[in-house]
Amino acid sequence: MIRRLSASLLTVIAMVSIVSVVCQAQMQSLMTRHVREVTVKGQAPFVGTFKGNYGFVFSGFTVPGQNPKTKEVPFAGNGVFTFDGAGNVSGVFNASENGQISLNNTYTAAYAVNPDCTGSVISTNGNANGSFVVVSGGAEVLVLDVDAGNTWTADMKKQ
Fold first, then answer.
1. Residue 119 in contact with residue 129, Cβ under 8 Å?
2. Burial, 109: exposed, middle or buried (Cβ in 10 Å; 0-12, 13-18, 19+)?
3. How many C-beta atoms lie closer than 10 Å to residue 8's C-beta?
4. CA distance 157 to 159
5. What is the CB neighbour count within 10 angstroms for residue 49?
6. Residue 66 vs residues 25, 45, 73, 136, 151: alpha-carbon distances, Å
7. CA neighbor of 151 nearest in space, from 96, 65, 72
8. H-run or E-run covering 38
9. How far is residue 9's CA from residue 27's CA, in Å, rounded to a whole number?
10. pLDDT, tens digit, for every residue of 12-34?
């Protein structure tokens, strides 16, 4: 009885192992066939391939003065940024924060682009930091602000 139970248990373990290996191989095959490399203008994306002028709009909510005790207010704007292909971005934008308009605000930052076309931008003049993804062969960039207390996105289009 114990031998039969042991033999049955070993058979079940062997079958589960085989099924596991087969499923893993099939998953790897599916992933290999259906995952394609994402590129910017036919090249693997890196800082040097992401350059030029991008017009943009942004909207969402922000905390005035980054004060955690203050409630979020509407925040929107537009502008133009220039990416230099060497990891630096600069530009000018106009904004409305809870109806208060500010014009010709400057922005400077350092940016990095990953092989999967995602990236990050870190302000060098105290403005917003973000994460982004380059889409449509570099024609568009989708941005998310990553600063605490802010909830806004931007859409940048190559000029």
1. no
2. buried
3. 10
4. 6
5. 18
6. 50, 33, 11, 34, 12
7. 72
8. none
9. 27
10. 444 434 434 344 444 444 444 43
Rounded Cα–Cα distance for residues 19 and 15 (Å): 6
Burial track 116-133 (b if 16+ CB lie within 10 A, e otherwise): ebebebeeeeebbebebb
Q: What's CA 157's distance to the chain center, in Å?
A: 15
Residue type, 21: V
pLDDT digits (tens, 9 = 90+) for 97-107: 999 999 999 99
What would the two tokens of residue 158 be? Answer: 């190559």
82-92 pLDDT, tens digit per residue, is 999 999 999 99
- Token pair for residue 11? 């058979």
Place of tokens 């599916």: 30
Is residue 27 within a helix (H) or strand (E), and if so which, with residue range? helix 2-34
Amino acid at site 104 = N
Please report which helix (H) or strand (E) contains residue 122, including its range.
strand 118-123
Pick out the chain residues at pLDDT < 50. 5-43
